[in-house]
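Both lines are quoted verbatim for reference:

——
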Amino acid sequence: MTWPPAVKVCGLMRPEDAAVASTVGAAYLGVILAPGGKRTVTAGRANVILGGIPAKRVGVFVDAGENELLANAREAGLHVLQLHGDEPPELADRMRTAGYEVWKAVRARGADDFSRAVRRYAGAVDALLLDGYSPAAHGGTGTRFPWAEVAERLGELPPGMRLVAAGGLTPHNVAEAATILRPHVVDVSSGVEVSPGVKDPDAVRAFVEQVQSLSFKQVR
């Protein structure tokens, strides 16, 4: 296990925010390519936002088809496809065959949602991303999932499937979440914003510093 976990800053809409996130140590930078969201950008704009920054590019999609995924991934220069809808394992596996890392997002009300996702996507994705459930949107709502409840099921993760923790994380609670869940990546969006898509540089820096200050003694 890598420790401390890597940091992903998502919902980026401005090049200056992406640059700050990378400079302070975020390994993954995320853009929303699913239409209709408060933080949605086009693939072309995503390439501008992330251009020249030495971090892995993550694109967030909701129920996009194979051709749409591939076209947007190429235009935005993505490394990771984050699937937030009801995409079947077969589609995820084809995207991996095409050369992309695939994270499947799960809006978890409880541990049973986690267990079902593990069974469904085992062998088809590189990581499960756990987000809080909200009827309002597929992500970026700042809603937490039950960390301790899910932590009791972490042994169900098969070899090779990583865990990404998202949903309601802030500089004030990320250390607690990481200590409980032991994820490979922690993912923040609204928890470091002043408004949707506009990041607070001080909050981004504080979030990364909290994660990087974690030690092996804090692993349960």
Observations:
- The mean pLDDT is 93.
